[in-house]
Amino acid sequence: DVIPQPLLDQYLSMTDPARAQTVDTEIAKHCAYSLPGVALTLGRQNWHCLKDTYETLASDVQWKVRRTLAFSIHELAVILGDQLTAADLVPIFNGFLKDLDEVRIGVLKHLYDFLKLLHADKRREYLYQLQEFVVTDNSRNWRFRYELAEQLILILELYNPNDVYDYLRHIALTLCSDKVSEVRWISFKLVVAILQKFYANNANALGLNFINELVVRFRHCSKWVGRQAFAFICQVG
What we know:
Strand content: under 5%
Radius of gyration: 21 Å
Number of domains: 2
Largest sheet: none
CATH superfamily of the largest domain: Leucine-rich Repeat Variant
CATH architecture of the largest domain: Alpha Horseshoe
CATH topology of the largest domain: Leucine-rich Repeat Variant
Helix content: over 70%
Order of helices and strands: HHHHHHHHHHHHH
């Protein structure tokens, strides 16, 4: 009753490989681009009409199609709500995490937006995977690591101080030693945000341990760039 059935059928047929040969080679990409809008129009109660099409697009051989979905999966999660997101989107999200960098960047740019929609126990499972974003297909792709640092600053609020210390601290320290200065700069802000997180939550012991680690690693570093990093961290703080 929401939209005419023939129109919906026409949309769903856009994933047919034959249409790519006869109509438009990028028709699947257009289908993927429009999917959040179609899902919003149909409403979450009619998600079952789109689910198979979404899964077909998510496994499309063209990375541009998967990339399009990766950039909008957080928007679809808002439309579908937490239960459908956990059941139908999380497996696809996990697949995108292991995809090409061109696809992973779509997930990474809205990582905070997606994770905050998950239940705490499900969200905690991603602590182990966040460090995988440090490794990219092309090490020269420094904007990927820059984006990771930016997202982590936001993501800090989603985890308790102990989890931040055990998992996110290591990523921050790695990024602070990046070869690209832009990545180091944003990482200094991340380090300060972690310290603020500790002290705002009365985790003074964790904060002191982290400060001592920064002193050993950067203040007493044999290379001037390490000592400079320590000065910049103090400046940001």
